[in-house]
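Protein in question kept underneath.
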Amino acid sequence: MKYIPGVAWVALLALGCATGPAGAQSVDIKTIVSVGGPPVVLNQNSQLNMAGVFMIGGSTSATVTQNGTNNATGILQFGGTNSASIGQAGMNNFAFVGQTGQSATSLVSQLGTMNTGAVVQFSAVNNSTIVQNAP
């Protein structure tokens, strides 16, 4: 039997999903790195949504909205004033927010069968809300 490296298997799997029948699972994966940039707003509507946002700057702001079967978001913010908002609707939802600065505000809202959310804040002023609902 011929050996196929792990990277080749991942490529074949991705190709199979991309060129499969109309009922194949759709995937949307985004990684955003922002240094002193404008606010990040990301909307994802695939069956599998994954987002990673890493921000450094005086004032950071990120909003991620995901509607799909499986949703995962990680936001890391290092700034003076940090703001993060994650909205997820799907069967399985995972959200993580990490913030360090003078003030940190975050909101995580999840509607699904299995919801996991965590907020870690290291700031002088911290405000966080996690709302999880199962249908």
In short: DSSP finds one helix and six strands in the chain.
